Amino acid sequence: MDALVRTAEHSGTTASLLDEALNTVMDLTRATGAVVLLSEAGKGLAVASVKGQMTQVDRSAFNAGQTLARACLESHSVLHSDATHDEPRIHGPACHRAKLRSLIATPLRYGDDVLGVLEVCSSVTHAFDTIDAQAVSLLGNTMGGALGRQMALDDNARLLARLEEALHVTQATARRYKDAALYDALTGLPNRAFFESQLKEACRTHEGHSNRFAVMFIDLDGFKPINDTHGHATGDAVLREVGSVLQECVRDTDLVGRLGGDEFVLLLSPLRDAQNDVQLIAAAIKQSLEKPRVIDGITFEIRGSIGWVVHDGHDAQSMLAAADAAMYRNKKAGRS
């Protein structure tokens, strides 16, 4: 209780608040490291304060889902892992490299908003019990309130700038959605017209610079029997699920569109090692789609044929046709 009161009534700067809070949570839970990650609109998680063993983790790893932080932010719930080496919610080598064996992550709430994540770690498995998780959760809730108020007090200029930026983003989004003809009514994804316009712009922008972006074409396998067996409402739900999965598998800079029926397209940009990057993205999409998921009370393993083409001076229509042809060759050969 003393720790909660000290955090709630903290009167220093944001930096001192975070520093004191991390020291407190590490003392309470016997953690070997702790980090506060703040959510930045459109940019994911950013490290605001870090201590102990957590300093060994690359800052980009938190946002990439290599600890529990990103899953915590997405679920808005407290997450606890006793053995990170066998944790399906963690993707990547960061925990292994930094020898993080146990983790607790809790959202930092401020009213209806989640400002970020508080995460603690230990170098041994099963280091934390239920009481530790509850303590981290309580301190995280208190920190969220104190942090929200503190940020409003000592950084008004930055917050105003962020609000102004958010307003511009909102206005730009409103202008984009003003013409509903550019979006697919079922999935909310860009339709063929919008996708082709963005692809033409990418070709124009990258003229003379090959291998900077790629187009991927995805056609679902065995989709017609879903409609025939379970009805079009279920088929529509499957298409919406596919759209969501594809968006989760790509970056904010990529574009996912639906051409119609069960055909989806992706504009992947920018790319560093184009051929390798696209293969990794395709593998991730295939793995994500094929995970069993319950849609309208029915368990599905969604499969699709994938083809792609890397920009090599093609125009937009040629790229789209080449990706379609690559997908069809793979479908005909039975390679999903």
From TrEMBL:
Keywords of this entry: Nucleotidyltransferase, Transferase
GO molecular function, one term: diguanylate cyclase activity
Enzyme class name: transferase
The keyword Transferase is assigned to this record: yes
Source organism superkingdom: Bacteria
DNA-binding in keyword set: no
InterPro entries linked: DGC-Regulatory_Protein (IPR052163), GAF (IPR003018), GAF-like_dom_sf (IPR029016), GGDEF_dom (IPR000160), Nucleotide_cyclase (IPR029787), Rev_trsase/Diguanyl_cyclase (IPR043128)
Enzyme Commission number: 2.7.7.65
Domain GGDEF: residue ranges: 211-336
PANTHER family, sorted: DIGUANYLATE CYCLASE DGCT-RELATED, GGDEF DOMAIN-CONTAINING PROTEIN
Protein name: Diguanylate cyclase domain-containing protein
Organism name: Lysobacter korlensis
Taxonomic path: Bacteria, Pseudomonadati, Pseudomonadota, Gammaproteobacteria, Lysobacterales
